[in-house]
Amino acid sequence: MSGGIPVRCPLCRREHLYAPHVYPCSCGTPVSPPLQRGAQPLPVTYVTWEDDWVTVRCESCGRCDQWPQPELGCDCGAVLRIPVKPAASGPAPGHAPLPLHIPLPPTAPAPRPAFHPVTIRTARDAVQAAALYLRWLGYKDIRRAEQRASSGVGLIAPGLRAQVEPTTRSMSLRDIECVWLAALNDSSVPVCFSLAGYTDDARARADGLALPLFVLDLTGTPQPVNSPADELISTGA
């Protein structure tokens, strides 16, 4: 794992000490993006979903996963993208490749490491926290929905359609019904995440539709709001 490195803002020349977040690999080993020491940070002027993620290789098992791109907010208002070393392919030195599938007894629950949240400071952090949580639940290839929603941010994956409301606005009855109808149209599981919660009629409608609702706290840990959310946590994807 990478330790803290000195970072100088190229705009105001302020110096910072930056340490990347640590995430859990599927094998249970904590990993973090390997930072390029001495590399110049780049101010973020245009954001795309692809630029928000980097490939990180676990040094224990050799698995490569997508994790949030390391970034630092400077006091001058600039957002700095911290360069990361490219991930090497293949098994880790001294380790044999892990088998792709290890059969488990029919009654054994699927192993799932502890969820490691990302602190929410911005709306973008809230969307990343929801994406990380969905990946932790077992959904793969999570990406932004191509069609923009009337509010919030849409995330999709095979068999999943999620809506994230990263503002201080509570999700409404209409929001819940729109997500449910969109998921029904493509035979996906609908899920909602909200930073400010839900209106009473939205919660009642979600319960009737068996639609999982989560509230994002500022630590980045989604909290289940209704029983469908509890069930999703229990079963996973």
Task: Give a structural overview.
This is Restriction endonuclease. It comes from Streptomyces mesophilus. The chain has 4 helices and 15 strands. It is of the alpha+beta class. It has 2 domains: 5-81, no CATH class; 123-235, Trna Endonuclease, Chain: A, domain 1.
According to CATH, what is the topology of the largest domain? Answer: Trna Endonuclease, Chain: A, domain 1
In helices, the fraction of residues equals: 10-25%
Order of helices and strands: EEEEEEEEEHEEEHEHEEH
Mean pLDDT: 83
Report the portion of residues in β strands: 15-25%
The count of β-strands is: 15
Radius of gyration: 19 Å
Number of domains: 2
- How far is the first residue's CA from the last residue's CA? 29 Å
CATH class of the largest domain: Alpha Beta
The largest pleated sheet is described as:
6 strands, mixed
Low-confidence stretches: 96-105
SSE layout:
Layout: E1 5-8, E2 15-18, E3 23-24, E4 30-31, E5 42-43, E6 53-57, E7 64-68, E8 71-73, E9 79-81, H1 123-137, E10 143-144, E11 153-157, E12 160-165, H2 173-185, E13 189-194, H3 200-209, E14 213-216, E15 222-224, H4 227-235
Parallel strand pairs: 12-13, 13-14
Antiparallel strand pairs: 1-2, 3-4, 5-9, 6-7, 8-9, 10-11, 11-12, 14-15
Helix pairs in contact: 2-3
